[in-house]
Each structure stands twice: as structure tokens, then as C-alpha cells.
Design goal:
Length: about 110
């Protein structure tokens, strides 16, 4: 199983980005995925999770109302739409399924 995150970049405060996570090597659609982020000098933070069907989602308080998680099971892609970005959102973002963590994508928000 492999997970590959992409879509990061540099954006100004108040801007938006959409991250993608492509899951490969897994034949089942029934898996939950969590987006984490990790900024230097901070603890890793679970940002958002989505159930296998997309019917259940979780958001950390720090991103609630600004981020939206979704999934396209037909193409094994998960998304994290990030709006109203703040400098505090600067981190490496990566997706994880169970114990398998993919390579992250850097998000930098300038003030």
C-alpha cells in the first residue's frame, strides 16, 4: 500500500489549497484515512479523518469550519480542501491509512 500526498505550496494568509492523497496497492475501498500535519518544533496533529464511505468525518478544532475532507473511492483519491489558511497552518501534510503513512506535501502560509 502506498499513499502519496500532493497539492501543497506557498499561499498568502486567507488563501486556499486543495491537497490530494492517492492510495495505491490496496484493493478494498473500505478504509479510513487521516490527514496529519507536522510543523517543526510542534507535535504531530491529526487534522481530519474520513470513514471508508465518507459518511463520517472528523476535524481538529484548529481547522473546523475551514477545512473539508472528501474522497473519491472510484479513483482511490482523498482530498483536503483548505480555505482561509493562516500562518499557523504551515506544516508538512501527509495522509495515513492504518500504520501506513505517505510522503508529505509542504504547505506554507505567509502572513
Amino acid at each position: 500500500v502506498q499513499l502519496q500526498a500532493s497539492g501543497g505550496g506557498l499561499v498568502q494568509s486567507g488563501g486556499s489549497l486543495r491537497l490530494s492523497c492517492v492510495v495505491s496497492g490496496f484493493t478494498s475501498d473500505y478504509y479510513a484515512v487521516t490527514w496529519f500535519r507536522h510543523a517543526p518544533g510542534t507535535e504531530r496533529e491529526g487534522v481530519s479523518s474520513i470513514s471508508s464511505t465518507g459518511g463520517s468525518t472528523f476535524y481538529a478544532d484548529s481547522v473546523k469550519g475551514r477545512f473539508t475532507i472528501s474522497r473519491d473511492n472510484a479513483n482511490n483519491i482523498l482530498y483536503l480542501q483548505m480555505n482561509f489558511l493562516e500562518p499557523e497552518d504551515t506544516a508538512v501534510y501527509y495522509c495515513q491509512k492504518g500504520e501506513t503513512r505517505g510522503q508529505g506535501t509542504q504547505v506554507t502560509v505567509s502572513s
